[in-house]
Amino acid sequence: MTAAPLKSAAPLSLLGLTPPEITSLMAELGEPAFRAKQVIDWTFAKRAVSIEAMSNLSKGLRQTLTEKFVTRTMTIATVTGSKDTTRKFLLKLHDGRFVETVLIPANPALYGEASDRHTLCVSSQVGCAYDCKFCASGLAGFTRNLTTSEIVEQIVQVEAYSGERMDNLVFMGMGEPLSNYSNVIKAIEILNAEWGIGIGARHMTVSTSGLAPQIKRLADFPLQIRLAISLHGASDEVRNKIMPVNEKYNLDELFEALSYWRSKRKQHITFEYILIKDVNDGLDQAHRLAKRAKGLDAKVNLIPYNTVEGLPWVRPSEPHQDEFRDVLLNAGVKATLRREKGHDIAAACGQLRLRQETELGIIDSPIPEKRITINAGA
């Protein structure tokens, strides 16, 4: 695969720093302690787009900070969709790569007609190494982890563009969040903090394809974030066909980790289950799924397959979707069937990014011959 020349050095962004780190920085520069509070306020509360805009800092300090730090590292390349529907943001990173962030408006059926709830689907990596067979995110393989500041900046960029406050975050965009554990966790702390972005922990959900050791590690994380599992198969036989991660962490190991999570948390786990015709939509899978969900008192979110250019899968008929859901409901499982938002704007994760990077010559083809080896490291 031929890659176009890209910038490599990652700029240091203040959006990725915590108050102790900023305080330490000010001390190293010989600045009084109150300067740290000013920098924190400008960075997070006032959302300064540049260090130069921090007008109550001395000119010398602004110049010194500008030599090492920035407040923005990405730009919005395109926005697809309209204000009253799902909007998809393609964000260009400092090295010329792209990630996607999806803004999902409130569902009145769930939150009431007057709800102004805004959910943002956040990316954690450029590409993905996990090669789920139905997903566009990993079609060009894995490029790199996003930094803490790049994760935080997705929210900052979308709020600035839309003029709307994000009050619900789901780490379900491009990449496997638990494979970028350290950066994701630090970003969550910044996003949650009162001095930071100020989003409640219970309004943040981390989704994983099933990295069992990292699920246990996350269970011990003090903030009360929520967990979603990209399950997509209720038996190892089915899951192995479409999710290579299952060969490393099979369902027994995954559910042992989920039991540990439930022993530490009160929040319900959510199983995300994409329905793919003649692959995982058999009613035998529905019955198995119901048994597994009841064992953990988990909720199930059924999602008819989103068409991905270049992949062969199709969604089941709507009557069959309903039949699959009804098996769960009749078994006493909380289940929803989500008629998708954003299908008409190619909101399956990775599609806009693949198209853009192919057109720019960053990648030759969206479907490489080789895949990266699965690695569950932090």
TrEMBL record:
Keywords, ordered alphabetically: 4Fe-4S, Cytoplasm, Disulfide bond, Iron, Iron-sulfur, Metal-binding, Methyltransferase, rRNA processing, S-adenosyl-L-methionine, Transferase, tRNA processing
Listed EC numbers: 2.1.1.192
Q: Which PROSITE patterns match?
A: RADICAL_SAM (PS51918)
Lineage, top-rank taxon, reads Bacteria
Protein location: Cytoplasm
**Which cofactors is this protein said to need?**
[4Fe-4S] cluster
Entry binding sites for [4Fe-4S] cluster: C128, C132, C135
| Active-site residue numbers | E100 (proton acceptor), C349 (s-methylcysteine intermediate)
Q: List residues of the Radical SAM core domain.
A: 114-344
Keyword Lyase in record: no
The UniProt similarity line reads: Belongs to the radical SAM superfamily. RlmN family.
Question: What is the role of the protein in this entry?
Answer: Specifically methylates position 2 of adenine 2503 in 23S rRNA and position 2 of adenine 37 in tRNAs.
Q: What else is known?
A: Reaction proceeds by a ping-pong mechanism involving intermediate methylation of a conserved cysteine residue.
The name of this protein is: Probable dual-specificity RNA methyltransferase RlmN
